[in-house]
Amino acid sequence: MPVAPLGCVALERACRLDARTTFRYAAAMVGLAGALEFARGLFLVAGLAVAAFAANANAGGDYFSVTYPPSSETNVLQVGVTYTLWIPGGTGEMRGLIVHQHGCGVGACKGGATAAYDLHWQALAKKWRCGLLGPSYHQEEKQNCRLWCDPRNGSDKAFLRSLRDLAVQSKHPELERVPWCLWGHSGGGFWASLMQVMHPQQIVAIWFRSGTAYSAWERGEVPRPEIPAAALGIPMMCNPGTKERDHERFKGAWEGLTAMFRAYRAEGAPIGFAPDPNTSHECGDSRYLAIPFFDACLAMRLPDKAGEQLKAVDFRRSWLAGMPGDEPGPADQFSGDAKTSVWLPDARVAKAWMEYVIAGEVADTTPPPAPSGVSATPKPDGAVELTWGAEADLESGIQAFVIQRDGKEVGRVPEKGLTKFGKPLFQTMSYHDTPEAPLPEMRFVDKAVSGGGSHEYRVLTLNGVGLTSGPSDAVRN
Questions:
Q1: Region at 382 (left for phi over 0; alpha for psi -120 to 50; beta for the rest)
Q2: Which end of the chain is more exposed for a tag (fewer CB within 10 A), N or C?
Q3: So what's the pLDDT on residue 230?
Q4: Distance from C-alpha of 222 to C-alpha of 227, rounded to nearest angstrom
Q5: Residue 59: per-residue pLDDT
Q6: Alpha-helical segments (H) within 199-232
Q7: Rounded to 5 degrees, what are φ and ψ at 209?
Q8: Residue 56's CB: how many other CB atoms inside 10 A?
């Protein structure tokens, strides 16, 4: 029987559930025979959707996904969730996991669905042999976000369960044990701040973009956790938008992160404060500081051998600054009050921090890597279809691709830079620091080729600040 009688809303809801729950849901609505046919169509569609996302991302690597339905049991996650994992191609034993956690609300949850397909974050993960995990909660309109953003309500258990299940699915058993970098926006920052006190020995570093639970627990809105000493040894960065400070709706994010920074820094915690001068609650261009921050923390803290404890923060390499706008310097030369200073992991991040808090931008002076795997396929109408793969520039990502035929530029992908939030990129960024769906393809059709014959094609990458890579290897149609 056709899927249509279930309706679009029912189909969307069913797609969020695991196989057994989906089948029971369909059977209750259309009977056993209908459920069998529905399930065949549903999982074919779901499989094609995942395959399409993976094909469009096109940076190499493997994708895995698990979905858990909501539970009605106490202290078990009452919001459905899908976890999508990307593992770089050719990875032997994984060294870590980067978790990109979206914020509250239906829009944020949908935005989180593409997090694991982000080429720029994938470049960081590949450098350190880490997985990139994008959770996407199935929060409904008017549903309480704290059902999931407080991990004590079941999302901690669901997260750990996903690591076990994805370890089996990916055939990377070490996934259950590797340490985590936690990036969280809004409710995701709320979640990360509580995971910090629950799993301090497991966390490499945390980036709080416009969110923390600190104020909520200080005001008694949620149970105040005990903060173990190990939690105060985790590198952290508080990253509110400056325009949140006087915003009626979002000023709590500014106040919460400011209070958390002051309290933790007074205890000697390695925590920084990096207000974004250009934004309110949206993520803007925060990735251009978040990625080098994690890069420095991974270099500092990952153990030499898998299974060993994380290394402690090396305060000898640290830099300190007064409040944003003050020139940072080596910690051993800092003359101010260290307990009120901004902590930064090293000189490179200190330079990037200074640029970011003043202008909201970070410089990049190195060209991106060249595309690879270019193919040219003649089409029946005489056009030539080009496809390729590419890795993002670690510093500034991918803005576009330049297409050359016989040494001359004949097109760009995309033709015109588009942006909703932050810099224009090949993968247009959302409010939530995730690629907008549908994901773009690394594909160009040369319809202007004339006269037949053979032509030589090359593809070049343009990074986020406009620097061009060397050309790819040449291919002929």
A1: left
A2: N
A3: 97
A4: 14
A5: 67
A6: 214-218
A7: -95, 105
A8: 18
